[in-house]
Design a protein that fits this description.
Oligomer: heterotrimer
CATH topology of chain B: Rossmann fold
Structural class of chain B: alpha/beta
Strand content of chain B: 25-35%
CATH class of chain B: Alpha Beta
Strand order of the largest sheet of chain C: 1-3-5-7-9-11-13-15-17
Shape of chain B: globular
Distance between the termini of chain C: 31 Å
Chains: A alpha/beta (485), B alpha/beta (248), C alpha/beta (366)
Largest sheet of chain C: 9 strands, parallel
Order of helices and strands of chain C: HHEHEEEEEEEEEEEEEEEEHHH
Distance between the termini of chain B: 27 Å
Shape of chain C: globular
Order of helices and strands of chain B: EEEHEEHEEHHEHEHEHEEHH
């Protein structure tokens, strides 16, 4: 429990009611000039010492990005993003020549991670969580590497994987989210800087939770991470992604791509506890979070489940999806999305049923407070050959106050008669009687709201790996501060 | 009337009935008793023709016809009736309408003309009264919001209106209080004749006090392990299934 | 399909400009990506070889008064075209119908009869209904054998404390695009039932605006579709304590595409709103398609809003039960299909009209 306990301690000792990770590290950074063009891409590729084929792949993606129109259909007020007004790559100077051990890393960086409660020193790892930390654009270190490699598990940064496992990368990168899928996918493919690469070999059950922490430190740098997880036949892996970002006035862009591939009988569990900076009470600053996450259940009996707790970011736009190709495959989506003050979230999932006997389950809990807007947008598409497909969707919205909004937009498209799709959605508010009862037992109104909301979200939170469920609960309560009264 | 020889049945590759033999003649009432999981309900579903069950081996002859070749509704129209343990609720379908449709389906199958509305109403009313069923209930949707006992009585009402030749009662006594049990049993006994037969499937001996069987069979692990007359049921009550199966 | 309209009818520049924007930018006949028309396929010419059945309306004409001749009171709804009062994108059907057609108004207060019959397939105009009286009126709107690609609108203005029941028969149409708009003042009720069957390419839009303490019920059934059959509803709660209830049931088979899109909007001051929506489709084979998109847009917290949507097939266990009672598969399926849509027919309170509807639907159900 070390990581979480430390995190919570950190949170409490920082002691103020504002965003607790709102600090930044003073470091020398290397970056190319602002802007987005072929030279920048070549710079990035050279910095990472990538092979020719990787550079070509990026340049091709860039060409496609320039041709695609920007997506429009989310219910968000997205101000025009000036793609040229951004730095696309940034690494702290001291990391330029790769450190060979933790001792060689700039102590400032290690301090930052300690502040965040992320254990880099292996001695501190009591809870069995292997961590890969990404500071701006570079993976700082990967703990537990040797232990995992004895099992044949590959857990390293994508930059490293491009060099050490090119066959796997070539085979699977871009196979679940094609470069031309939409403009952010293409942008990410062109300028992605780093991310995690995980390969679980046949028959192996990964013994530890794998985890990556991100931090967007430099001003005006977009974070373009790319994650690729491959679970070979009969394997299992549980992965946790967590994020934080400092306060900045200008908005920062985060356009990530996450691809999951599960082969026969394999299972991938992907959890996200996201606490990006949401912007201040007026909505200034904050992160734009545009993420494409897609899992392909390629093999028979394969299973992919997405669990997310989203409380941060000024504008969120993400739809973790499952493509259920293999017969008997299962896709699951559990989500808690909290929006407060001026946040906007448009999030949901897509479940595409292709194989036979596939099933999907969607549980989405949205909480809106302040002047926020929270939209669930989902697609359940049952193709005509998807015999005996089953879907169950439950979307519940909780509204606090009448200046916020909750929307539910589910698309249900079915072409197979042997399947069954069920969708339910309800909207409600915090029960006044419940609030009164809590208060009568000594809880102040904010604690009471936190308690009730946690109850509302319980069904989703119980799917998080145990280590992070506690952190998530605290996060839920913190995110709703100032929403009642 | 009914001749089952060496029946082997499995569902989803799991064997449930493993070599069952049973012979029922006209005018006879047979009781089938056994513990949970012995295959009692499976036998009743297989006789009625529910798919999902694989007939691995064996034959079933009914009235000199190969029962296994007939579809569910054909078996029903040939006079085979199954009173379900858990009768289905069918919202949107009025009970009286359902009864009328069932009766007329059979008449059509046999080449008779349909029963006219007045005749049907009279028949339904008299049978309902015999079973102490409130006619108001017959205007409601089939089995919707019926209590357990009311659902069982409904099954017997259907049976009395369809006059089957071979009636299978699947745990009809479960969920019934003493009064309901008595009424249901009376209803069944009234239908007994030299021309028809009954297979009464039950857990407990109690029902057999009211519907006295001519033969009693004990089923365990998919086979009939012991057969006898009514006294076997009393012996079972005393000794229990395990002991009797052991001595078989 | 091409939809040519002229704007000569419009005097005002503002209105003209507005109309042009809608016609250019939101034309679903040209652009198939307009969100609210997503599944309607208006850009395509959907046809079928089927010979459409006639329905017998003699009984209907016997029990109701035909008011088709009363459509000679023109009313101008086009000059404030640009004052769209709904919290939704303006309906293209509304704009184009008001530009293309004249509109006639019928004051229901001036009619004594209880059951009124109007065949809009025989009328080329938009119709506007007004009611402020408290007496119960059942307004039957018949639309059959229509072959018209230009939308047509029907408006209902219901005053305070008034009420109206509408029964819409949309049967055996080649092409028909209708827009229904209901504006409910405080404390009014509107009950709308739409029976749709044997259609090739149709789309019905149901918009409703609710003020204080109103009730709006919208029930629809959709069967025997030969092409693309689309239903779109938008219900907005602008003031507190109103309730809306929507139930749509479709039976989709034989290559049909049947769609339902329904949005409930609750304003931030519309506390104590009670909104319920249920769309259910029975999808009976693999060459047909059911699309459902139930939407909620809620800005008030003290409300009770829910929606549900299911797509399924007939219950195998129920079919087995019928068969065990000697009723064959085909008859069992027919009875179960009827049971599925029974709720919609049952919602009609008037005995004669309910019986008539029941008989018609039964004769149409295969």
């Amino acid at each position: 429990m070390a990581a979480t306990e430390q995190t919570i301690k950190q949170v409490n000792t920082l002691g103020d009611t504002d965003y607790k990770y709102g600090f930044s590290t003073e470091l020398d950074e290397i970056r190319p000039p602002k802007g987005l063009n072929e030279d920048i891409i070549k710079f990035i590729s050279a910095q990472k010492d990538e092979p020719e084929w990787m550079l070509d792949w990026r340049l091709n993606a860039f060409k496609i990005f320039n041709k695609l129109p920007k997506p429009e259909w989310a219910k968000l007020n997205i101000p025009e993003i000036d793609y040229q007004d951004c730095y696309y790559y940034s690494i702290p100077k001291s990391l330029k020549d790769k450190p060979k051990s933790l001792d060689e890393i700039d102590p400032e960086i290690i301090k930052t991670y300690e502040k965040l409660g992320i254990p880099l020193k292996e001695q501190k790892m009591l809870s069995g969580i292997a961590v890969d930390a990404v500071f701006d654009s570079v993976s700082v270190a990967t703990t537990y590497k040797k232990q995992l490699s004895d099992l044949g598990i590959v857990f390293c940064s994508i930059s490293e994987a491009v060099k050490t496992h090119p066959d796997l990368v070539k085979k699977y990168l871009g196979s679940v989210i094609p470069v031309s899928d939409h403009s952010f996918a293409a942008l990410n493919s062109a300028v992605f800087t780093d991310g995690s690469f995980i390969y679980i070999p046949e028959g192996v059950r990964c013994p530890v939770e794998l985890s990556t922490y991100f931090r967007i430190n430099a001003m005006n740098t977009g974070q373009f991470e790319r994650t690729l997880i491959i679970a070979d036949k009969d394997s299992y892996v549980s992965y946790l992604e967590g994020c934080t970002a400092p306060m900045r006035d200008e908005n920062q862009l985060h356009a990530a791509n996450v691809e999951l591939v599960a082969l026969d009988n394999a299972e991938i569990k992907y959890s996200t506890v996201q606490n990006w900076y949401p912007g201040d009470k007026e909505g200034k600053g904050g992160i734009y979070n545009f993420v494409t996450k897609r899992g392909a259940c390629r093999g028979k009996n394969s299973k992919i489940s997405w669990t997310q707790v989203e409380t941060g970011s000024a504008i969120t736009w993400k739809y973790p999806s499952c493509i259920l190709q293999g017969d008997n495959s299962k896709g699951e989506f559990y989500s808690v999305a909290i929006t407060n003050n001026m946040q906007q979230a448009d999030t949901g999932t897509k479940m595409i049923h292709i194989g036979k006997n596939t099933s999907s389950k969607i549980i989405s809990k949205g909480i809106s407070a302040g002047k926020a807007n929270n939209t669930y947008r989902g697609l359940v598409n049952i193709l005509s050959k998807a015999k005996n497909a089953r879907n169950f969707t439950q979307c519940d919205s909780l509204l606090i106050g009448n200046k916020c909004g909750a929307h539910t937009v589910p698309y249900i498209e079915s072409s197979n008669s042997d399947s069954m799709v069920e969708h339910e959605a309800t909207t409600s508010k915090i029960n006044e009687d419940q609030l009164f009862y809590c208060q009568q037992r000594g809880l102040n109104s904010e604690d009471a709201v936190g308690l009730i909301v946690n109850g509302f979200c319980k069904e989703v939170l119980q799917h998080l790996p145990m280590e992070f469920a506690v952190e998530a609960q605290k996060l839920v309560a913190i995110s709703l501060e100032g929403s009642v009264g | 009337m009914l001749e089952i020889k060496n029946l082997h049945v499995s569902i989803e590759e799991k064997k449930i009935i493993k070599g069952l033999n049973l012979s029922i003649n006209k005018g006879e009432v047979h009781a089938l008793m056994g513990p949970n999981g012995s295959g009692k309900s499976t036998l009743s579903y297989v006789l009625s023709g529910k798919d999902k069950y694989e007939i691995d081996e064996g034959t079933i002859e009914y009235n000199e016809k190969n029962l296994l070749e007939l579809d569910v509704d054909e078996r029903a129209n040939e006079g085979l009736f199954l009173a379900f343990q858990y009768p289905m609720e069918i919202p949107g379908v009025q009970t009286s309408f359902f009864l009328k449709t069932a009766i007329n389906s059979k008449r059509k199958y046999l080449g008779h003309s349909e029963m006219d509305a007045l005749e049907f109403a009279k028949l339904m009313k008299s049978k309902a009264e015999e079973l102490n069923i409130n006619t108001e209930m017959l205007k409601r949707d089939l089995n919707v919001n019926y209590s357990g006992g009311e659902k069982k009585k409904q099954e017997i009402l259907q049976m009395s209106m369809l006059s089957p030749k071979m009636a299978i009662l699947d745990e009809t006594d479960s969920g019934l209080d003493i009064d309901a049990l008595r009424i249901v049993s009376e209803g069944v006994n009234k239908l007994r004749s030299k021309e028809n037969s009954f297979l009464v499937i039950t857990h407990y001996q109690r029902l057999l006090n009211y519907i006295k069987p001519d033969f009693v069979h004990i089923i365990a692990d998919g086979r009939i392990v012991k057969s006898g007359d009514y006294s076997l049921a009393l012996e079972l009550e005393e000794k229990g299934y395990e002991e009797i199966s052991k001595s078989a | 399909m091409e939809l040519t309209l002229n704007l000569d009818k419009i005097q005002s520049d503002n209105v003209s400009k507005y109309a042009k924007t809608i016609l250019d930018k939101q034309n679903p006949y040209k652009n198939f990506k307009i969100e609210n028309y997503k599944y309607a396929q208006l850009h395509r010419d959907i046809t079928s070889e089927t010979l459409l059945r006639d329905i017998d309306i003699s009984e209907l004409l016997r029990i109701s008064k035909n008011i088709s001749s009363l459509t000679s009171n023109p009313v101008d709804l086009a000059s404030d075209l640009n004052l769209w009062k709904y919290k939704n994108d303006d309906s293209f059907f509304r704009v184009s119908s008001l530009l293309k057609r004249d509109t006639s108004s019928i004051n229901l207060d001036l009619i004594d009869d209880k059951n009124l019959f109007l065949d809009i397939s025989q009328i080329n105009e938009n119709i506007h209904f007004f009611k402020s009286s408290k007496n119960v009126i059942n307004l039957i709107i018949m639309n059959s054998k229509a072959n018209d690609e230009y939308p047509k609108s029907i408006f209902f203005d219901i005053s305070n404390n008034s009420n109206l029941n509408v029964i819409h028969f949309n049967i055996s149409n080649y092409k028909s695009f209708l827009y229904f708009e209901s504006n409910l003042q405080d404390n009014s009720h509107l009950n709308f039932v739409s029976f749709q069957s044997d259609n090739i390419h149709t789309r019905n839009e149901f918009y409703a605006s609710l003020n204080l303490e109103c009730n709006f019920d919208l029930f629809g059934l959709n069967i025997n579709n030969y092409g693309v059959n689309d239903n779109y509803s938008f219900i907005q709660h602008l003031k507190p304590s109103s309730s809306s209830r929507e139930i749509f049931k479709s039976i989709v088979e034989k290559g049909a595409i049947t769609n339902f899109q329904g949005k409930i909007y609750v304003d931030s001051i519309a506390q104590k709103t009670d909104g319920y929506q249920m769309s259910r489709s029975l999808l009976l084979d693999d060459i047909s398609k059911a699309n459902n998109k139930p939407e909620l847009e809620i800005y008030a917290d003290d409300v009770k809003c829910s929606h549900g949507s299911t797509v399924s097939k007939l219950d195998e266990d129920q079919i087995y039960y019928f068969k065990s009672r000697g009723i064959d598969s085909e008859m069992a399926k027919k009875i179960l299909k009827k049971a599925f849509i029974a709720e919609i027919i049952e919602s009609i309170k008037d005995d004669n009209l309910r019986d008539y509807s029941n008989n018609i639907i039964e004769s149409l159900l295969t």
